Amino acid sequence: MKVLAAVVTHNRAVLLDRCLNKILDQTRLPDQILVINNGCTDDTNMVLDRYPVEKIEQENLGSAGGWNSAITFCLEKDYDFIWLMDDDGYPDKNALNVLCNQFEDKFSCLSSVIVDENNHNQFVFPYPLIKKNGVPNTLKFWKKYNSINALPLSDNFYYPYAHLFNGALIRVESIKRIGNVDIGYFMYGDEVDFNFRLLSDGIVASTPMAKHFHPNVMEREYSLLRIYYNMKNNLINYRKHYDKPLLRSILGPLVILLRVSRANGLLYAFSLIIGKNKKIFFKSINRGFQEKLGKDFPH
Fold first, then answer.
1. CATH class, range 3-218
2. Domain definitions of the chain by residue range
3. From the CB of residue 258, how many other CB atoms can be counted at a distance below 10 Å?
4. Which of 16, 71, 127, 194 could form a disulfide with 145 if both were Cys (CB 3.0 to 4.6 A apart)?
5. What are 150-207's pLDDT values in tens digits?
C-alpha cells in the first residue's frame, strides 16, 4: 500500500518542525510527505527547507482549503491512502505501521486516537456515544468517553468514530467515490461533513493502538473567528447530516456559549448575546440557518 502523509500548516513553524520530525521517525515510513503552506508568514519555509518534503504554497484558504489541496495532490498521483494531520499534533512512532496493518476492507478511514501530549491516556477530543448508524446520540450528548481505558471497542481494536484530521488514514478509493473536502466551509465543520460522507462508503473508526499526541486545545480561548465559523457551520451540518436537527440547532448556540464562558469568561460570553459582539454571533446563527457556506466573516 502506497501512503502519502499530508500536513496542513499555518504560522506554527516550531510545531510543524516537531510534526515532520516525528513523521520521519515512523517505524513504517510514508512513501512521500506533502506540506500545504496555508498562507504562512512566519519561518515555515525555513523549516521546510530542512526536510525532504513536497510543498504547496497557497493563500490562507482555511483548514478546508488546505485539506482540499492535499487531497487533490493525492488524487493526481498513484497513492492508495492519504494520512492527514494538522501541524500542532504529532504521531506516535508506530502509528502509521499500526494503521496500515489494522486497516480492513470495511473501513473508509481508520484514525489514531488523539491524546493529550502530557497525558497519553486522556483524549484531547472526547469520543461521543455512537448509535448503530455511526451518528452521535443526540439524547445522550453529555455522555463522552474521555480516556482510552473507558473506550468500548469493536472486535477488540476499534471504536466506530473518528475526529478528523489528526492522524487519519483514509482510503483513496473512498475519496474518489465521495468527493473532496468542501472548501466552502473554510474552517470548522469541514471535517464533520467529510466524516459523514466517508461514513457512506465504509466504517470510520479510531484505534487506541495508534496514538496521535496533541496539545490540550480545550484550554485555548475562543476567537471571534472561531466562534463565527464554528456556530455557522455546526448549524449547517446539523441540518445536512444529523438526526433531530431542530433540537440540535436549539442546543447548539447554548453549547457554544457554555464553552466560551468556560474558556473566555462569563463576560465575554455575554458580549455575544447582549454586548459588542452580538451582531457577529447572531449573524453566524442567521447564516447557518440559511445554509450559507463560504469565507464571510464580517470585518
1. alpha beta
2. 3-218, 220-289
3. 12
4. 127
5. 999 988 899 999 999 999 999 999 999 999 999 999 999 999 999 999 999 999 999 9
Rounded-to-integer distance, Cα 103 and Cα 58, Å: 32
Cell numbers linked to 14: 516550531
Other CB atoms within a 10 A radius of the CB of residue 224 amount to: 16
> Around 50, how many Cα atoms within 13 Å sit in the side-chain half-sphere?
12
pTM: 0.92
